[in-house]
Design brief:
By secondary structure, the chain is mostly helical. 55% of the residues lie in helices and 0% in strands.
């Protein structure tokens, strides 16, 4: 069987996994495997950040046109007569 190492697991997520493992009387590895099997079988959200997982997603999505306009304004204000140094 293959091994998988996961770094930087948030403390709150680790606590939830540990609690599930304890309640189900299994090891952390067994609990993570079960969780992965359920997600892959039932299908989880297509994206980690989505309307289903993040309540502020829709508000941030609506801000995209404003952010693009702001970036374009900043680009227009940048000087265009800069003489760039040769990197060599």
């Amino acid at each position: 069987m293959a091994n998988l190492t996961i770094n930087d697991i948030p403390d709150d997520l680790m606590a939830k996994i540990q609690k599930l493992a304890k309640n189900n009387n299994c090891s952390l590895s067994e609990q993570v495997i079960v969780a992965l099997e359920i997600i892959l079988r039932e299908g989880g959200p297509k994206y980690i950040v989505s309307p289903d997982t993040d309540p502020s997603w829709e508000d941030r999505r609506k801000m995209i046109p404003e952010l693009i306009a702001r970036i374009e304004r900043i680009n227009e204000e940048l000087p265009t007569d800069i003489e760039w140094l040769d990197s060599v």
